[in-house]
Amino acid sequence: MSTAPPPPGPPGRTSPRTFAHRARTTARDALRDVGVALVTPTGSTEALLSQASRSWMRMIPYVVALALVSSLLPTTIGLLIRDYEVAGALAGALAVAQTAPLLLAVTRPLPAWWIIGSANVLCAVTTLDATADRPAPWLPPAIVGYAALSLALALREKRRTLVAVWLTTTVASLLLAALSAPGSQDTSVLMIVLSGAMLLVGTLIKDRREAQHKLAEQEDINEAERSHRALLEERARIARELHDVVAHHMSVITVQADSAPYRLGNLPPGVVKEFESIATGARESLGEMRRLLSVLRSEDTAGERAPQPGLDRLRHLADATVRAGVPVVLSSPEIALVRELAQLSPAVDLSAYRIVQEALANVVRHAPGALTEVLVSTDRKHLTVAVVNRPSKRPSSAPLEHGSTGHGLIGMAERVRLVGGTLDVGPLPDGGFRVAARMPVVEPGGTAPAPDRPPTAGPTSTKEQPRP
C-alpha cells in the first residue's frame, strides 16, 4: 500500500486530504516521542538525595518509601477484600505490585512507574463491577502511592518524560472513569490533578537544585579566576617595584662604560669601541625597561618615584604599626640590621621588607592589639625573616584571606619564590600566627656578598620595644 503524500491542491489553499495527512503525521510523531520518552530513563541510578552532605538526609528517600509501603500495603489488601470483594490471593498480588516498587523508585523511578502504573490499571479493571458507591477507578491508597511516585519521577527524569507520564495518566484516568459503574465516586480527576501537582513540585525542586549547583560551580570558577588575576596583579606590582633596583644597576653599568676611556686612559681603539657598545646596550635596555614598566603600570597607578624601601626602614614600619594599636618588638638592633643589609642583594632586601610589611598589616586587620615580634637573622648564606603574633583579645575585623586579593599571603609567596626562598605560614598552638621566610642572601644569578664582612649570628638577645 502506497504511503506517498496526496497531490497538492490549488496554490494558496490546503486541500482536506493534505491537512488530514499532516495531522496524521503529527499525531504519529507525537505518539512516537511519547513512547520513546516513557521507555528511556535517565542514565543515573544514584539514589535520590545521594548528593546530600549529611548521611541522615541521604536516608530520607528510603525511610519515606519504606513507610509508604508499610502503611499502604495492608490498607490496600484490606480495602480490596472488604469493599471490592476481591479474592485474597489476587488482592495481595495487586497490593504488592502497587506498593512494593516504591522502594525501587528511590533509584529507578521510571521502571517503578511502569510496574505501579500497570498494577493500578489492572486493579481498576478488576474492580469495575464492584465500584457502585465506592471510589473508582483509582483506590485512595493507589492515589497516595502514585503521588509519591510522581514526585520521585520529577526529581530524576527529564521534562519530556514527565509530560509523557502525565498525558498517559490523564488518558488512562478518563478512559477508566468512562468504564466505571454508575454511581461510583469518581477519583480520576483527583489522580490527574494530584499527579500533575506532584510532577510540577518535583520539577521546581529539581530546577532549583540544578540552579544552585550551577551557581556553586560558577562561584568556584570565579574564585579561581579571581585568584589567578590577583596572582598576575601581584607579579606586576612586584615587577614595578623591582624596576628601580634593576634600573640602578643598568645606570651604573652605563656610567662605568662611558667613563672607562677617561678613567683608565691609553686604551686601544678596540677596547674603547667595546666600552661604547656596552654603554649603548645598557641605555637601550634601560629604555626597554621603562617601556615595559609603562605597560605593567595600571591606568590608575601613579608613577613611583620614591626609592624602594629595605630592611633599614623596619624601625619606621614598626613605629607606624605601634601607632595603629599593635605592640611590635624588633629582635635585632638597628645597627645589626644595617650590617645585614649591606650583604643583601636589592631584590632580597626589598622582598624582606615587603614580607614584614604585609605580615604586620595582616596582624592589624586579623589580630588587633596582639603582641607581635619581628625576628631578622642571617647565617651569611640565608636571610630569615619571621613575624609572630600572639592571640588577640579583640575580635578580628575580617576573615583571613588566602586568595581573594593580590596582597597578603599571595604577595609573600610570590616574593619569596622570586628570590628562590621558602615561605612557612600557619597558626600557632596557642592561637597566634606565624609567618617565616627564608631567602638566600644573594638572589639566584646574583653576586655573592663581600668576603671581608663577618656573618652575623642571628637575632641578639636584646629586644627593643619601639615607642609610638
From TrEMBL:
Cellular component terms per the entry's GO annotation: membrane
Gene3D superfamilies on file: 1.20.5.1930, Histidine kinase-like ATPase, C-terminal domain (3.30.565.10)
Coiled coil ranges: 214-241
Organism placement in taxonomy: Bacteria, Bacillati, Actinomycetota, Actinomycetes, Kitasatosporales
Transmembrane segments: 59-81, 87-106, 138-155, 162-181, 187-205
An example molecular function term from Gene Ontology annotations: ATP binding
Listed name of the protein: histidine kinase
InterPro entries given in the database record: HATPase_C_sf (IPR036890), Sensor_HK_TwoCompSys (IPR050482), Sig_transdc_His_kin_sub3_dim/P (IPR011712)
Disordered: annotated span: 441-468
UniProt keyword list: ATP-binding, Coiled coil, Kinase, Membrane, Nucleotide-binding, Phosphoprotein, Transferase, Transmembrane, Transmembrane helix, Two-component regulatory system
Catalytic activity annotation: ATP + protein L-histidine = ADP + protein N-phospho-L-histidine
Positions of the Signal transduction histidine kinase subgroup 3 dimerisation and phosphoacceptor domain: 234-299
Biased composition (Polar residues): 458-468
Matching Pfam families: HisKA_3
Recorded superkingdom: Bacteria
EC number(s) recorded for this UniProt protein: 2.7.13.3
SUPFAM superfamilies linked to this entry: ATPase domain of HSP90 chaperone/DNA topoisomerase II/histidine kinase (SSF55874)
